[in-house]
Write a structure and sequence with these properties.
With 264 residues, the chain is α/β, with parallel strands linked by helices. The chain has a single domain (16-90, 127-253), classed as Alpha/Beta hydrolase fold, catalytic domain (Rossmann fold, 3-Layer(aba) Sandwich), CATH 3.40.50. 26% of the residues lie in helices and 24% in strands. Helix 3 crosses helix 4 (157-168).
Length: 264
């Protein structure tokens, strides 16, 4: 199986944007829905911007565990500090949900049948990585975005796919990934194959003790694959484990994109 790669070409973005109501608890932000073409698909995302930015805003592409464009809700306080926060619906998630195909991907196929589960996963992962690439293509056409200050933040599924994407795309200047591991998939689909290519750019890996999804050995394998200089943080498992990484992620990324860290 070949390795995952970026698109290698530039189809028309056909970018469309529409302003929507700001989040209830952050009325001082601007909110946009955006849609663009990606390898024949139409991908949908959300962008949150400070109401009155001082010049161009650094961009954080924030992808959550659930794979949906609701991620800006997690990063609202980041936008309040001057960053543009964007996320997209990944394949089979949010506006692109397809229960039949999702069930098919989770089903092992017999050799010689129409396809294999790994082949389908490869195609979906490739689409997801290119969707993120195209999201940056689209967002970087907006006047508000500082193209030289781009970071990536991912949790769960967003971290797994981000480990691959950040190793392939040179534009993110820093990344923070929470809840990813290596050695759990075939090499062509495994984050450990790609994450080391992000070096020497700053990378933070956040792991959760006792995670039922990412064993400690897999978390350590990803850190090893990332190479020297990667920072690691271990968090306790608990009810708030999903949001616990946000403050350390922001503190790490804020330095790379020249914004204020979390208040103490």
């Amino acid at each position: 199986m070949e390795e995952l790669r970026l698109s290698g070409y530039r189809e028309s973005l056909a970018l469309w944007t529409r302003r929507i109501a700001p989040p209830e608890h952050n009325p001082g932000l601007r909110a946009l829905v955006f849609e663009y073409s990606s390898r024949g698909d139409r991908a949908v995302g959300r962008l949150w911007l400070p109401m009155r930015p001082e010049g161009e805003c650094p961009l954080v592409l924030l992808q959550p565990e659930g794979g949906c464009a609701s991620a800006p809700a997690l990063g609202a306080r980041w936008a309040e500090r001057g960053a543009a926060i964007a996320s997209i619906d990944l394949p089979l998630h949010g506006s692109r949900a397809d229960p039949k195909l999702a069930a098919l991907v989770g089903t092992p196929f017999e050799p010689g049948t129409l396809a294999s589960a790994d082949a389908l996963r490869f195609e979906l992962l490739r689409q997801a990585v290119i969707d993120l690439e195209r999201a940056l293509d689209a967002l970087c056409t907006l006047d508000e975005i500082d193209r030289d200050r781009i970071a990536y933040a991912g949790l769960g599924l967003g971290a797994l796919i981000g480990s691959i994407f950040c190793g392939l795309d040179p534009r993110p200047c820093a990344a923070a990934l929470a809840g990813a591991g290596a050695g759990l998939a075939p090499p062509a689909l495994d984050p450990g194959t790609y994450v080391g290519r992000f070096s020497p750019r700053p990378l933070l890996l956040i792991h959760t003790e006792g995670s039922p999804r990412i064993p400690r050995e897999a978390a350590l394998a990803l850190s090893t694959a990332a190479g020297e200089g990667v920072e690691q943080r271990w968090l306790a498992n608990g009810r708030d484990a999903a949001e616990a990484p946000l403050d350390p992620m922001w503190d790490f990324l804020a330095d790379a994109i020249a914004l204020e860290a979390s208040p103490r």
